[in-house]
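Bumping my old thread because nobody answered last time. Still need a sequence for this structure:
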């Protein structure tokens, strides 16, 4: 299956970039992950808007217009063998002929890369049981609202979870739970869905927005406010959400059950609404 690199579609094995690429040297780049259902990209406009917002946030020009990105994504979707896909986009500040932290001259073109992989949905048996998570200190920088490829703190947090047989690490900063290593986190308490607010310390998830829309459309009690670590542990339900995981119940936290230790009814309802909505 061909991948997209700097204006061309070519086999992955032939897609090469310079070892001086600033994505490689500095993690100086941005990315997006777009889910595709039955060969239709889900919420692509919103993903491309977030890509633009992240590029603006790090003063990088977008190498492609929204229309051009749409065409790239469409072509990847058409040529991939899978109906349900995950499209990955990445833009870096390109490769200069010398290493310097400051931006390269304007003559250096950015690197733009995109490829498709199969969207692996969570097996029903895993969803029925829920997954385990741990809490870890949030060691990231202060612009977590930008979807940048400098992901070392997220990588180390997720690896710590996996090493303990868990699916996700929940990031705690100043006593507040911000999000997961690669997901947004919601809690339910006494029938109220609670979502952390969009600040510089959380990625504004596209799935997060869909869930707030669905809760509102179904007239569910909803609170968007900070969640303390104490509230997190006392929640009736905890969910992780992302473009690839959709909505997944966290039923164990640091070895202790959340609620009765089983996925709750609200999460199952929201998962069903999401299935109906995405198709
Ligand atoms: N991660 N928070 C973080 C830190 C994330 O990395 C992600 C997504 C989310 C959820 O955002 P969305 O609903 O737009 O997927 C929240 C992607 C899937 C990834 O890094 O692979």
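Sorry it took so long. Here it is:
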């Amino acid at each position: 299956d061909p991948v997209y690199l700097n204006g061309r579609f070519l086999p992955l094995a032939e897609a090469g970039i310079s070892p001086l690429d600033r994505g490689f040297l500095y993690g100086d780049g941005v990315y997006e992950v777009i889910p595709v259902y039955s060969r239709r990209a889900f919420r692509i406009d919103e993903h491309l808007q977030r890509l633009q917002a992240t590029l603006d946030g790090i003063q990088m020009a977008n190498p492609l217009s929204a229309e051009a990105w749409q065409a790239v994504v469409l072509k990847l979707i058409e040529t991939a063998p899978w109906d349900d896909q995950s499209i990955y986009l990445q833009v870096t500040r390109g490769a200069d002929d010398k290493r310097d932290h400051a931006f390269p001259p304007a003559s250096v073109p950015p690197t733009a890369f995109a490829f498709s992989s199969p969207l692996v949905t969570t097996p029903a048996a895993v969803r029925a049981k829920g997954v385990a998570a741990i809490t870890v200190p949030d060691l990231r920088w202060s612009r977590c609202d930008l979807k940048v490829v400098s992901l070392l703190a997220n990588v180390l947090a997720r690896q710590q979870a996996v090493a303990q047989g868990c699916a996700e690490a929940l990031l705690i900063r100043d006593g507040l739970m911000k999000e997961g290593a690669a997901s947004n986190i919601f809690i339910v308490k006494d029938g109220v869905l609670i979502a952390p607010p969009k600040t510089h310390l959380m990625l504004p998830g596209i799935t997060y927005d869909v869930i707030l829309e669905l809760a509102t459309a179904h007239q569910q009690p909803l609170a968007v406010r900070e969640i303390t670590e104490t509230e997190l542990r006392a929640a009736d339900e905890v969910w992780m959400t992302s473009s690839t995981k959709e909505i997944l119940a966290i039923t164990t936290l640091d070895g202790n059950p959340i609620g009765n230790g089983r996925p709750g009814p609200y999460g199952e309802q929201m998962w069903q609404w999401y299935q109906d909505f995405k198709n």
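The chain has two domains: 2-118, 124-278. Let me know if any region looks off to you.
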